[in-house]
Design goal:
mainly alpha, about 0% strand, 2 domains, Tetracycline Repressor, domain 2, Arc Repressor Mutant, subunit A, elongated
Length: about 200
């Protein structure tokens, strides 16, 4: 191979890798999103085969990203907590305190709906005091405290409740049998009406 040909080959070779990495990242994200939906609708007993089929990939692709069921459960749970953190970061500077709280609680409802199906299995595998669980609790409670306190300081919600009260109340709504997201969001509206001042 000539020097020119060698240089051309080395220049072209790296170009394919980013595309493969992007495809892999899309597959991973699709699997996590699909797993969330399947666990929410089918329950925690849903199989990895169901998830792979619903995501439109082979079971081998799923196992390449998540060698064990626990790996997938952890990814789904971590992703749900990341959404809560990102939602707080987005709504706090762009909404009034009470509206920011309402928007974040909508995301919390989705988190809690997924959590109810996978939490027991996850805790049995990693423990309540694992890094994943302790970090997730810190993110959730810090976000809730910041949002509730801001709305209270703005005089927009009552001051005789704590962020823990709000989380327990809203989380409890998602524990009803036959979880219905639309119904839970209606209940959330009632909760917010009860929290508002005036």
């Amino acid at each position: 191979m000539t020097d020119d040909a060698t240089q051309e080959a080395t220049q072209e070779a790296p170009q394919e890798a980013p595309r493969l990495r992007a495809d892999a990242a899309r597959n991973r994200a699709k699997l996590v999103e699909t797993a969330r939906e399947v666990f929410t609708t089918e329950g925690g007993q849903a199989s990895l085969e169901q998830i792979a089929k619903a995501a439109g990939v082979g079971i081998g692709t799923l196992y390449r990203h998540f060698p064990t069921r626990l790996d997938l459960l952890e990814a789904v749970y971590r992703d749900e907590v990341d959404v809560l953190r990102e939602t707080a970061e987005k709504v706090i500077p762009n909404s009034s305190p009470v509206d920011a709280l309402a928007l974040w609680l909508e995301a919390f409802v989705d988190y809690a709906a997924t959590k109810r199906h996978i939490f027991t299995e996850l805790v049995e595998a990693v423990g309540r005091e694992s890094d994943l669980m302790t970090h997730s609790r810190a993110v959730i409670y810090d976000n809730a405290e910041a949002l509730v306190s801001a709305a209270q300081e703005a005089g927009q919600i009552r001051t005789d409740v704590t962020s823990g009260d709000v989380l327990r109340l809203v989380g409890g709504c998602t524990m009803m049998p036959n979880f219905d997201r639309a119904q839970t969001r209606r209940i959330l509206t009632v909760v917010m009406d009860g929290l508002r001042v005036g």
